[in-house]
Specification:
- By secondary structure, the chain is an alpha/beta fold.
- Helix content is about 40%, strand content about 10%.
- The strands form 3 sheets. The protein has a 5-stranded mixed β-sheet with strand order 5-4-1-2-10. A 5-stranded parallel β-sheet has the order 8-7-6-11-12, sandwiched between helices.
- α6 links the parallel β7 and β8 (about 205).
């Protein structure tokens, strides 16, 4: 078990009763030079001229930040199965009774999101987080917005912004500032949308939480690496969005636009339980999180208006939009857009950031563009989809692992596409769906698999043959 202690405004950690246990300590002090969690999340309220969030919203943001820190700094390869961890978080909260009342629900919901076992130990604090000043310059007016939406710079969130703009929504877009190159791309995309829909009142607000190595106390000091996966990052995004929405108005909706195929997160192979993608927009997670927020008194609701659409169908809605045609290729769907920096010495045609073209999100992206007949995306030119690509990168965690898994899932789909009961059994592997969700996700799943199949035909040299998929089976 990983014991994680979170210090908020002061260090209140003590080993007196648990001297035999090891603890990892993250501190979020007011003076950042004394913290090992670097963050500017105070601008989520200061940009609106507020000194602080409400107690319950501040708690939720701190809980999500704590989960993110633990998720990012506790390596999965230290666990027995190299994936699932047991993490016990000791978190100071202002509304202790409220959070204890939903503790089990929260543990279960975040466990579903990340694939780990979470245990929360809340303790009382009366100290507000960075409530020492009020901004008076560069303020954002709360009166002009009627919605909040996540904006990552990916293709789905970009299309989501276009959909909201076409519906004349005045939206506060919230993003995560991780790398300067990605931040520049987010601002480029937003500015273009904002300029085109100049009659609307839109704003982009970015924030960051960066956990450094935790302090270790008690037990044996461990050598920790940074965990490359971070399923809980989306919880942090949502907590930031909920924080902002709560300031604008208690009924202001929070949107997280993502295609339904990614959302339902069907395992690509029998041994990969959806590990290729996040479960952020799975209805089990969204519904459970909304219920928890409602129980503790947060009335802003999270929803995904793309839940019943494939990525190709989303693109089809916008293919005649000038901003889409100008900038869709600039969006970043890739799971590792900055990894290309290591390839620059191999070719001067490689740019950073870029979409690699071979990870799971990139494969779905390529398939969606095939549906509308045009893809101007500049993928990493060193890696072309082909049988040779698989043979050259055929190790377990190699570059071809996602592609092989997608090919397996395509063959499984083709062999069982007439069996609705089998398809539905795949859809509910992550958990139960209601009748409306089951019908909607089955249609989206079939549509998305057909899009992937068509992409493999057009872009993947020898891939269908490699997977044992015969063209006669596709008709």
């Amino acid at each position: 078990m990983n014991n994680i202690w979170i210090n908020k405004n002061r260090d209140d950690f003590s080993l007196t009763e648990t001297t035999s246990e090891s603890f990892f300590i993250f501190s979020m002090f007011d003076k950042q030079n004394k913290s090992n969690v670097k963050t500017d999340m105070e601008q989520l309220w200061r940009r609106f001229g507020k000194k602080s969030l409400s107690n319950i919203n501040e708690d939720f943001l701190l809980i999500a930040s704590s989960v993110f820190c633990a998720d990012k700094r506790m390596p999965r390869n230290h666990s027995l199965d190299n994936w699932s961890r047991t993490i016990k978080l000791f978190i100071p909260v202002l509304e202790l009774e409220e959070w204890n009342s939903v503790k089990k629900d929260l543990e279960r919901t975040i466990g579903f999101l990340s694939g780990d076992k979470w245990i929360f130990e809340f303790r009382q604090t009366d100290l507000k987080f960075r409530a020492d000043k009020t901004n008076v310059k560069n303020l954002i007016s709360i009166d002009k917005f009627d919605s909040v939406s996540l904006f990552s710079g990916g293709l789905d969130s970009f299309c989501g912004a276009l959909s909201l703009s076409e519906d004349n929504k005045n939206t506060l877009y919230l993003g995560f500032r991780e790398y300067s190159l990605l931040t520049n791309r987010q601002r480029e995309l937003f500015d273009s949308i904002n300029n085109y829909y100049s009659e609307l009142e839109n704003e982009l607000l970015l924030f960051n939480v960066n956990p450094l190595a935790p302090i270790q106390k008690g037990g044996t000091v461990q050598k920790l690496t940074v965990e490359s996966t971070s399923r809980s990052r989306s919880l942090l995004f949502l907590a930031g969005a909920i924080s902002v929405a709560s300031i604008i108005g208690e009924k202001i909706p929070v949107y997280i636009p993502e295609n339904g195929f990614i959302g339902v997160n069907v395992p690509l192979t029998d041994s990969r339980s959806g590990s290729c993608s996040t479960r952020t927009t799975h209805p089990i997670f969204i519904n459970s999180l909304n219920e928890i927020l409602n129980k503790v008194g947060i009335e802003n609701r999270i929803s995904n208006f793309y839940w019943n659409k494939s990525k190709g169908e989303i693109l089809s809605e916008h293919k005649n939009n000038p901003i889409f045609n100008q900038l869709a290729s600039r969006t970043l769907s890739c799971s590792h857009p900055c990894l290309s920096r290591y390839d620059k010495k191999k070719s001067d045609k490689v740019v950073t950031p870029c979409n690699c073209g071979y990870c799971y999100p990139c494969l779905i992206r390529r398939a969606s563009f095939v549906k509308i007949g045009k893809d101007k995306t500049g993928y990493n030119p060193l890696y072309q989809l082909s049988r040779d690509f698989i043979l050259n990168h055929n190790n377990i965690q190699g570059r071809a692992s996602d592609l092989k898994a997608v090919l397996f899932s395509l063959r499984r789909y083709i062999e069982n596409k007439e069996d609705s009961e089998f398809i539905r059994s795949l859809l509910i592997r992550q958990g139960p769906l209601n009748s409306e969700e089951l019908v909607g996700y089955e249609r989206v799943y079939r549509q998305s698999m057909e899009e992937l199949l068509e992409m493999m035909r057009e872009n993947g040299e020898g891939l269908l043959e490699y997977a044992g998929i015969k063209e006669g089976n596709n008709e």
